[in-house]
């Protein structure tokens, strides 16, 4: 994708997109294995258990972000991210949908929601993201969410790959990804416009680029952890989910 005509800073937008082209986790071998039907059911379960930790922390990092924002218009624009994950009084959110996926692959949703079995490296990577958004300048915090520019393409691949290759995949079990197809573009249109508007000076542009790079590393590190524990060499660290644990 190339920067849109209306971009406030096409040069910066192109450099942000280049980071995705080079570093986004769609290039990770674990995703290739998952989307091509090469994962065993236990490898899929390990992914669901670990990715839960990311899911559960996303609304917490968005709440941490909002707690720092003095501009009520920015808080209002950000608020829907929390509702997308936590749901509202009359609408289920992404957290519930992730637990439907957990059930679909034969895991007890209470086990998954307990966070037991999450790999140490997954926890460290995700906690680093939450801390980053809590502590770094707002520009870096917003820019770190821009990996979502690249998420719809991977969600499309995942929906098609899971439906084609795995018995557990049905519209109800993979609804999480279907919903993200409309949620992520809304979030990222706002986030990208905000970053392009607010990163004007060279050091601000550098900050935005560094933040997006950092975030690609947060995502990549989670898949490296999964690969090492459940694919090759298959060394599950103490405390990591063991096949057979937490099943329905
Ligand atoms: O499945 C994926 O590959 C993927 C990637 C990302 C991302 O790029 O950070 C997010 C999501 N999914 C996602 O579902 C999601 O809600 C989300 C929120 C955020 C964020 O940083 O605020 N990233 C992502």
UniProtKB/TrEMBL annotation:
Pathway assignment: Cofactor biosynthesis; pyrroloquinoline quinone biosynthesis
Enzyme class: oxidoreductase
UniProt entry keywords in alphabetical sequence: Oxidoreductase, PQQ biosynthesis
Pfam family, one: TENA_THI-4
Reactions mediated catalytically: 6-(2-amino-2-carboxyethyl)-7,8-dioxo-1,2,3,4,7,8-hexahydroquinoline-2,4-dicarboxylate + 3 O2 = pyrroloquinoline quinone + 2 H2O2 + 2 H2O + H(+)
Source taxon at top rank: Bacteria
EC number of the protein: 1.3.3.11
Record flagged with keyword Oxidoreductase: yes
Domain Thiaminase-2/PQQC: start-end pairs: 14-224
Record NCBIfam families: PQQ_syn_pqqC (TIGR02111)
Family: Belongs to the PqqC family.
Function description: Ring cyclization and eight-electron oxidation of 3a-(2-amino-2-carboxyethyl)-4,5-dioxo-4,5,6,7,8,9-hexahydroquinoline-7,9-dicarboxylic-acid to PQQ.
Protein's UniProt name: Pyrroloquinoline-quinone synthase
Lineage: Bacteria, Pseudomonadati, Pseudomonadota, Alphaproteobacteria, Rhodobacterales
């Amino acid at each position: 994708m190339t920067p849109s005509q209306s971009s406030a800073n096409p040069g910066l937008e192109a450099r942000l997109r280049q980071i995705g082209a080079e570093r986004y986790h769609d290039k990770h071998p674990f995703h290739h294995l998952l989307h091509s039907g090469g994962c065993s059911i236990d490898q899929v379960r390990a992914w669901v258990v670990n990715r839960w930790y990311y899911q559960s922390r996303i609304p917490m990092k968005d709440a941490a972000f909002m707690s720092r924002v003095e501009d009520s218009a920015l808080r209002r624009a950000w608020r829907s991210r929390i509702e997308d994950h936590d749901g509202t009084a009359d609408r289920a959110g992404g957290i519930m949908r992730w637990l439907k996926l957990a059930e679909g692959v034969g895991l007890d949703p209470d086990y998954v929601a307990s966070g037991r079995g999450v790999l140490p490296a997954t926890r460290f990577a995700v906690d680093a993201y939450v801390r980053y958004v809590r502590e770094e300048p707002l520009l870096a915090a917003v820019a770190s969410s821009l990996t979502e520019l690249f998420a719809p393409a991977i969600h499309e691949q995942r929906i098609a790959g899971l439906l084609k290759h795995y018995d557990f995949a049905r519209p109800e079990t993979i609804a999480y990804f279907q919903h993200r197809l409309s949620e992520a573009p809304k979030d990222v249109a706002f986030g990208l416009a905000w970053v392009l508007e607010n990163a004007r000076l060279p050091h601000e542009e550098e900050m935005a680029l560094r933040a997006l790079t950092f975030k690609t590393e947060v995502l990549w590190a989670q898949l490296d952890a999964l690969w090492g524990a459940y694919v090759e060499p298959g060394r599950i660290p103490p405390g990591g989910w063991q096949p057979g644990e937490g099943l329905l």
